[in-house]
Structures are given as C-alpha cells and as structure tokens.
Amino acid sequence: MFSRSWAVYASFLFPVAVRAAAQYDLVKEYAGESFFDEWTFYNNIDNLTHGDVNFLGNIDAFHNKLAYTNDAGNAVMRVDNTTQLKFGQKRNSLRLSTKDQFTVGSVWVADLLHVPYGCSVWSAFWSSAPTWPVGGEIDTFEAVNQDPLGHMGLHTNPGCTHSSNAVQSSTLINSTDCSTEANNNQGCIISNPNPASYGQAFANAGGGVYVTEFAIDGISIWFFNRTTLPSSLQGNVSTIDTSTLGIPVANWPADDCQVNEFFQLQEIVFDITLCGDYAGAASVFYQTCTGVCYNDWVLGDPSHYDTAYFEVSYLRVYGQPGELTVLQPSSTRRSAELSCLSMVGAITLATGSLLAIIWAL
C-alpha cells in the first residue's frame, strides 16, 4: 500500500520524460519590476560551498539594495560593496532560486548584461534538483576570480560522462566525469572559448544571451554575444526553435548520460559567493590573483566588489507544446497527497464492503 502511494506521488513530481523537440513555447518569464516575485532567497551563511558570505533573505536583500530593479528595468543582484568588515565577519551577498521547478523538455533563455567578476568572486547561473546531488545540476554559466573564460558543466550521481560524440563548438574540455564523487566534485566541465564570456570583456561587449536546452536526448548550452544573437532570439519571442540556433557551445548527449536517469525537476539559481571551495582554493586562486583570498579581498577595500553583480534583462522558460513544464512544489505535493488519500479511502471503502459481503455469507 505504501509503495503504491509513493509511486503515484513520485510520478506526479517527476513526470515521465517526453520525446525531445526543437520547438518550444514560452511558459514563464522573469523580467522587470516583477522579476524577484517568485524566487526563494537562501537566507543563511554559505554552508554549501563554504564561501565567506552571508546570503541574505529577501527583506534584507531589498533593504540593503543587493537586489533591486534599476532604471533600465533590469534586475540587479550584487555583493555588498560598501561595508568595511572586521576579521571573522562575512560579506553580504545573494543566492536565490526559482520557486517553480522545470521538467525535462524545457529551455531557459537568460539575457545577461553583466556578470560578477573579480578576485575572490565565484558566481554562477545554474539549475539544480531540490535533492542535490540526486537529480543533477546544470551549470549554464560559472566563473571565478580573474579567469579569462566562463565555464559550463554538469554534476550528477556516478555514471554520467561527457560523450566523445558530443556535437559542440568548444574544444576546451576540462573534465569528462560528471560524478560528484570524482575529482573533488569537479563535474564534467566545458570552457566557453569566447573571450567575452566573462569579466570586463563580457561587460564591454554588452553581455550576452545564454540558452540551455534540458531535453530527453541531451543537454545543450548556447552562448551569443550582441553581434551574433540570431534574429529568432531577438525581441519578445514567444516561441523558439533550438534547431535554428546552430551548434551549441557545450553538449552532453544522452548516449553517455541518460537525462531521465540522472536528472529530475530543476530549480534555476543565481548566486555569488566569495572564496570558498573553488575560488578560494590555492591552486585556483593564485592562477589569476595575489594575496590571501579572505584577508586581502573579503576584508579589504569593499570597492573590490564594485563589479561583483548580475544585471539581467530577462529570464524566460520555454516548454514543449502541450506538455507540463512548470511545477510548483507546494501545490504539487498537496495534490499528490490528496491523490494518495483518495486512493487510500477508496481501497478502505472497497475492503469494508467486501468484508460485509463475506460476513453476510
């Protein structure tokens, strides 16, 4: 009885993956004054990647102007760049994730005008299953310190790898094992070869647009700067066809990483931490920066973080026509519970009727 109820619940939360399709329709948009309305702010220290930050809740984030909509109508998410800290203190920053979750068979498009950069900075635009690492992680954009390039990657349970048959434009393959248990959770990482994919060069170029396709036959990520942005992504686009976007920068086909095995519903995340397990690791930090990550940067001149911010024109999510793409965890859970309770009631009633018949006989 319990296993049957759980099967109903699980199938509601994690729908059977549908066949991949190139055509997708707009199902969700985060933009303008309402951009921040449907996000969960982490509201804790960085106990996940051990960075030297306090991730603020939404009230403090808005009050301290770390999250706001600027005069151009773009969403800004930033690190505190005004407070002089004392030893032992952490700098305020943000990590926020969508309240909604998105199924296999979806595409998210992010128009980013600026991404955080600088020594000690570790920023990312990514997605994750709520039960990480079960359910996987997709890193659309990630970069640290003064690295000249941004990166893309996957993190999964053991068994998923980057295929040698991947069709992608980047030849900068940093690692091929996606397992969180391999190589200190490096993941299977592809560097974006575009010199304007991160840092000052990204800002000088006016940013760019990232497209992530989360499909049953594989995961693909495209990056376009302003001069290469296809007409099919310009303006208020309600439908996109990923087959018109050309070869993706990074691609993880399902032949070596079954999407419906290693990935579940995804929440989209923006976060900026400082130092931590990646940016603060000596082998990484000293490649592009000097001094001591915490002492000289986090505790140093707060203006170090004048460039540590995201500026986002929009984030749009597209889904396959006629398929369920957007799920709300609270309503999903409640509906599943009611469904299970109804089943329990029906079986109980049927059992009682059967016993009554047997008793009468």
From TrEMBL:
Gene3D superfamilies xrefs: 2.60.120.200
Record-linked Pfam families: GH16_XgeA (PF26113)
UniProt superkingdom: Eukaryota
InterPro entries (UniProt xref): Beta-glucanase-like (IPR000757), ConA-like_dom_sf (IPR013320), Glycosyl_Hydrlase_16 (IPR050546)
Transmembrane segments: 341-360
GO molecular function, one term: hydrolase activity, hydrolyzing O-glycosyl compounds
Domain GH16, first and last residues per copy: 21-287
GO biological process: glucan catabolic process
Protein's recorded name: GH16 domain-containing protein
Gene source species: Ganoderma sinense ZZ0214-1
